[in-house]
Amino acid sequence: QVQLVESGGGLVQPGGSLRLSCAASGFSFSTSVMRWYRQAPGKEREWVATISSTDSSTDYANSVKSRFTISRDNPKRTVYLQMNNLKPEDTAVYYCAAGAPWGNDYWGQGTQVTVSS
């Protein structure tokens, strides 16, 4: 059974930090491209970051570049999203996804991140 379980969301003040985790099971994690997405209220889901399966190269949306860091721990089958200098516009449900370079096969259920004073 394939599972992607996100955790680490919560309420944080502007300028604060959170680290999201996504624990994977039921598929070949080490050979999967892993991605984070987010969906704010009333908006479409948007891509946030990608980490490759081969050399752990990374890519980021312009809106989070230099503030967010995606990483992976293959033995732990977990992908992380370190989020620093959070802004109110980062408020969203954050989802992890697993798949291939051309698309995603599996999605998690999401974790809420709220940035507010």
Overall description:
The protein is an all-beta fold. Helix content is 0%, strand content 54%. The chain has no helices and 11 strands. The strands form 2 sheets. Strands 2, 4, 5, 6, 9, 10 and 11 form a 7-stranded mixed sheet that branches. The protein has a 4-stranded antiparallel sheet with strand order 1-3-8-7, with no helix packed on it. Strand 7 (68-73) and strand 8 form a beta hairpin. It is globular and about 40 Å long. The N and C termini lie far apart (40 Å). The mean pLDDT is 96.
List the helices and strands and how they pair.
Layout: E1 3-7, E2 10-12, E3 18-25, E4 33-39, E5 46-51, E6 58-60, E7 68-73, E8 78-83, E9 92-100, E10 103-107, E11 111-115
Parallel strand pairs: 2-11
Antiparallel strand pairs: 1-3, 3-8, 4-5, 4-9, 5-6, 7-8, 9-10, 9-11
In brief, what are we looking at here?
This protein has 117 residues and is an all-beta fold.
pLDDT under 50 segments (min length 5)?
Answer: none
Q: For the CA atoms, what is the radius of gyration?
A: 13 Å
Number of strands: 11
Strand content: over 45%
* Terminal Cα span: 40 Å
Content-based structural category: mainly beta
| Sheet having the most strands | 7 strands, mixed
Q: Could you spell the SSE succession in H and E letters? A: EEEEEEEEEEE
